[in-house]
Amino acid sequence: MQKSMVIGASGELGSENTVELNIQEVGEVDVDRDAPVIVHLSIEINAAPETVWRIQTGIEQWPTWQKDISRAQLAGSIAAGSTFRWETHGLDIVSTIREVVPMRRIVWGGPAHGIVGIHAWSITPASQGVLVHTTESWNGPAVTADPGGMRAALISSLADWLSALKTTAEAAN
């Protein structure tokens, strides 16, 4: 089943610049499978699922362990519908949490600077800790203008995030 959703691509309420998203409904919130850029990355982390979950969902603590995030502020709790404002690579972003399955999965997304991003994270127990898998889709005018460059930027950003998460979680374990 497909759902269609329209979100302002500028990140401003009431924006006339919109992008239609087709979001696959499979019982879980999914990324935009029609987006020109979709990146999947995984990493094994030798830490308890609770440790990884606490670090990953401790949004206001992100700047302490991620060098590319200069600030992060959660409005509310870790729950579907809550928003958080964060700054990464000099970009001010407001994201909305779309799904939370405690200790297993979190999905957030929203528009920022011509990019509509949807970011899904899963934590799966493994023999030596957990496997963290992330999938993120990017759509919008900035992405369609340079999908190759945007894909490279997203791969780099997610690889750095996963590496920092691994280092932080293993040190805390």
Please provide a written account of the structure.
The N and C termini lie far apart (41 Å). Strands 3-9-8-7-6-5-4 form a seven-stranded antiparallel beta sheet. Strands 1-2 form a two-stranded antiparallel ribbon. α1 crosses α4. By secondary structure, the chain is of the alpha+beta class. It is globular, with a radius of gyration of 16 Å.
Concise summary:
25% of the residues lie in helices and 45% in strands.
Q: Gyration radius, to the nearest Å?
A: 16 Å
Query: What is the percentage of strand-forming residues?
Result: over 45%
User: Biggest sheet: strands side by side, in what order?
Assistant: 3-9-8-7-6-5-4
Class by SSE composition: alpha+beta
Q: For the report, how would you describe the main beta sheet?
A: 7 strands, antiparallel
Number of strands: 9
Q: How many helical stretches?
A: 4
- The termini sit apart by 41 Å
Q: Helicity range of the residues?
A: 25-40%
Q: Uncertain runs with pLDDT below 50, 5 residues or more? A: 1-27
Give the topology string: H per helix, E per strand: EEEHHEEEEEEHH
List keywords for this structure.
173 residues, alpha+beta, 7-stranded antiparallel beta sheet, two-stranded antiparallel sheet, 4 helices, disordered N terminus
Describe the protein's topology.
Layout (H helix, E strand, L loop, with lengths): L1 E7 L9 E7 L12 E9 L3 H9 L4 H4 L3 E7 L7 E6 L2 E11 L3 E8 L2 E12 L2 E11 L1 H5 L1 H26 L1
Antiparallel strand pairs: 1-2, 3-9, 4-5, 5-6, 6-7, 7-8, 8-9
